[in-house]
């Protein structure tokens, strides 16, 4: 009230302050002498004088507190006084605010066995003790206290059940001053309660009396709402909600925490002299409350996640209703979350909070090919089967290199091509497992370099055929290209590819990138680069080589098979071109997941390498078989002819001899 009276109920205790202001101890006014010895040691109940400590607040009247129009309402009248800070030289006393034990109906009491200890269980009774939990409260102080009726009435019940004293005047509390200034009902901003140091808000409304036709402001009725209740509710409501967490904080900087579902307190009590040291006993130490911003929370594992989510929303300008992604930490592979925030506001009041809801994302299994998935088996089968089949074809081909049919087919470069096919199928195994920076780099280097290693023997092979017998210049002069010279022609392809891979490994290396699809709550980890320059460069380089090979193979298609494998080369290069174009179109025009793209790549490699290798090897094996069959048939025919000739000689000669004999 305006005279300093305060009556409060903070379950399971009550609190009361008699009316009065600060007073000087050297010349104590008569009306304040009764308060000199009413303060009490909270541990053992020893009576002591109520002396203002240096820096504490007190109220002092202005002009004898003659009524004047209120600041917020000219039709209302208020007492004028000022809020001051005590200094030790002033030697001031104060009217104490006393904390009381109460019974089940809220009456101050020190009756043994009548005191409630739990507001939610009034059947649980105890005795009122001081802080040592040994000394029972037994206080009887006589005087004309207002609690007893005033008007000089002497009583000894004002401090019955009072176990603690504090220097407190509601008139210098913010919630009281604002209500008086604005002369209207209102919500306070969050602040630490004086009694418990808990953070909360207060709804207050002014009340008046009519005296001599004047509307006189008498005080404030207030209800406190502790955020501890909100904190407990959030903790209970979201403790088993599949990882969903909630953070409520103020809308304005520094975004003090109102409460969170982790249960971490939104403030801590520390020593006034050292804000880093916890205050263990506010009754004997000068303490203050330090509120926590989201980044200050750390007691619960989810506190950091909530803080990082709040920071992400802050960076985006707090878009209301928009899902934003964040990570548990900066470590690669750490859990990812999505969060959304809304503003809770009561218009024209001090209540404007931001409610942040955070939930974990689901890691997409289709971003990688790992054990246990069907695609893992498919990819292993494609890579292993392709490598084994190409190896078998190479061995079958290489063992017959001295056979005339293989010897005239330029077997050295054909063998190099098939070995490249084996290695290219082996690169499929780098597609297995989770995407990491190392794996992303290996996948790019192995695939693109082995493509050139596989294609280059085929390209120089068709180029030599074209140069020797296909170009117009070759028709008028003799031209020789040795195997060594042809092998050297492959080196520029390797150097260019190595240069491309090396340059982009520095300026835009492939890395494992994490991104979160907020619309579907999925956490993706894929290999990616900052831009498409590398893909475009490789597409142009590798595509140009395949196109050149197709052109040379086409121009050489009608050459006599005795000069080389023109038909096989044509089929192989066109097969590679077709598979390559089809793979690029499917991967870019369809919405495939990363793992599906890997399987597509593995199948494309299998088809292109195995079929192309078969074109070279099987045709020569068939030719060898036909040649062997022809030689076998020829040998049989000659033998039969010889046998027939001998038989005829045997049969004809005797008659001839007979004829000759007859002639002779």
TrEMBL record:
PROSITE patterns: G_PROTEIN_RECEP_F3_4. The chain crosses the membrane at residues 375-398, 410-432, 444-466, 486-507, 539-556, 568-586, 598-622. It is found in: Membrane. Residues 375-617 form the G-protein coupled receptors family 3 profile domain. Keywords: G-protein coupled receptor, Glycoprotein, Membrane, Receptor, Transducer, Transmembrane, Transmembrane helix. One of its GO terms (cellular component) is G protein-coupled receptor heterodimeric complex. It comes from the Eukaryota. It holds the Pfam family 7tm_3. This is G-protein coupled receptors family 3 profile domain-containing protein. It comes from Ditylum brightwellii. The lineage of its organism: Eukaryota, Sar, Stramenopiles, Ochrophyta, Bacillariophyta.
